[in-house]
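User: Please predict the structure of the protein below. I'd like the answer in structure-token form so I can feed it into my own downstream comparison script.

Assistant: Understood. Taking the following sequence of 288 residues as input:
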Amino acid sequence: MATTTQAQPRRVPASADLWARVTELDDATLQRQVQRLEIRAAEPAQQAMRRDYLSRIIFPRDARVLEVGSGTGAVCRELAGWPGVGRVVGADPSPFLVERARELAAGLSNLRFEQADGRDLPFDASSFDLVVFHTTLCHIPGPEAALAEAHRVLRPGGKLAIFDGDYATATVALADNDPLQACVQATLANLVHDRWLVRRIRSLVAAAGFIDADMRSHGYVVTDDPRYFLATIQLGTDALTTAGTITAATAQALALEADARVRAGTFFGHIAYASVLARTRPPTAEPT
């Protein structure tokens, strides 16, 4: 006799990524991450990459925009003033970050923030013209669910914009076995769920039902103003010290080495980023 087997839900592995566990973090940890996010958002190189991929989007008049994983709201604040944009909603699972984003966006009447998980959005189908994931998908265990939700809330012909780091390329190394690179790797282990995600993003986007995916590369090189990378190194040394991998004296030596490179003008940091623009299928033409 024939039998049927119900499909089992995909098991998503537990994540060491702080952002994947953002609702569990204490306020002090979240405040440190707020500072890192705002430092990164204000960097000219990061601003240039945002303008680069956002300028490729054709916005309909009074576009309704959703950013999933909006964090402190830096991208939402930029979108709120973008030509053609009418209304912006930022969604983030952390009530702490939602409140901070609201404070930073005070006075922007066309922008609001909601607490929500990107894999279960509290919005109606076909509610938005554009959904943005800005350095978000790499932190989400089960990004397929987030992309499926983005597809659901977009109108027919609506746009998807993804910008994320190819974090497997992140480096501050000046040579083989550079000790500062171990700090970067330790940070990635604690801050990125899937550092290889960008390399699979086109197939994930297609599997979610999007079409016409356009993927482009964006290089992020830092030499003169390495505050973001210095914070990254510090996070790594803290993680290595906590784990007992290095001593407090070694952690101090690593911090001094990073500072010496900045003063000598030899500091170098690099991450390859990528953007993907795609769309949902347009409405079916009415029969004549």
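That's the full token string. Residues 1-13 have pLDDT under 50 and may be disordered.
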